[in-house]
Amino acid sequence: MTEQGDSKADETIDFSSIKPIALPIDKEYHTFIAYKAGDPDSAVALQIVELLGGKGYKCCLHEGDFLAGKSTLRTIAQTIKRSIKVVFLLSENSSACEMWKYQLDVAETFHIENKGYKPIIIKLDQCYLSDTLTKYTYLSADKPTEEWIGRLAKAINDETDHLISSRRNIKFVAVPCIDYNRDKEHIIDTCRYPHICAKYIINDDICDGSCDKKS
């Protein structure tokens, strides 16, 4: 499971005590659930929606919630944009589904560009975990839903798991060239090889020229 706070991976969280967070003004759903249509995946998706919906969470499934006659790809992108989190049901069925992979790509791209959240992965069976997914922890659905739905609700409510939360606000500062155009007068505006202060990037400190590291 996606580790949240100090809770343990095998700990059952009291679902009855959890309430959904308020929807931001630009969001329509707490979560969009991506899965491969057909049992058992559809059955799990419907059960999640029923349990979360009963607590006040607004969830979206492509089966039943998408308006007929619209572009599927565009609707998926729009729905992901209007959802706080995206839950992916991973199984033998979905791992080979191109549409499922497309939804993962859209979710990651949108949330990276908009300081959004990591996808929430629910592993339904003993399917292979691709390299793309190994960078995320996951919730194992190998027990009755009632035993892990609380952990899912907590993950949806969590507001600390931004995809780029560890990325620094990097600013590139041009300094005089040392290794290029050595025999010419340095002009920052036209320099093709500006050097960057490594200390400034790593620590977000104001560059004072004392690091002696330029790359």
Structure description:
- It is a single chain.
- By secondary structure, the protein is α/β, with parallel strands linked by helices.
- It contains seven helices and five strands, in the order βαβααβααββαα.
- It has helices at residues 41-54, 62-65, 72-81, 92-95, 98-113, 145-157, 198-203; strands at 29-34, 59-60, 83-90, 120-123, 138-140.
- Strands 2-1-3-4-5 form a five-stranded parallel beta sheet.
- Strand 1, helix 1 and strand 2 (59-60) form a beta-alpha-beta unit.
- Helix 3 packs parallel to helix 5.
- The two termini are 39 Å apart.
- Mean pLDDT is 77; it is low at 1-7, 165-183, 190-207 and 211-215.
**How would you sum up the major sheet?**
5 strands, parallel
Mean of pLDDT? 77
Structural class: alpha/beta
Order of strands, main sheet, comes to 2-1-3-4-5
The strand count comes to 5
Separate helix tally: 7
End-to-end span in angstroms?
Answer: 39 Å
User: Unreliable stretches, pLDDT < 50, 5 or more residues?
Assistant: 1-7, 165-183, 190-207, 211-215
Question: Helicity, in percent?
Answer: 25-40%
Order of helices and strands: EHEHHEHHEEHH
Cα-based radius of gyration, to the nearest Å: 23 Å
Global outline: globular
Strand content: 5-15%
Protein name: TIR domain-containing protein
Domain TIR: 27-156
Organism: Mytilus edulis (Blue mussel)
GO biological process, one term: signal transduction
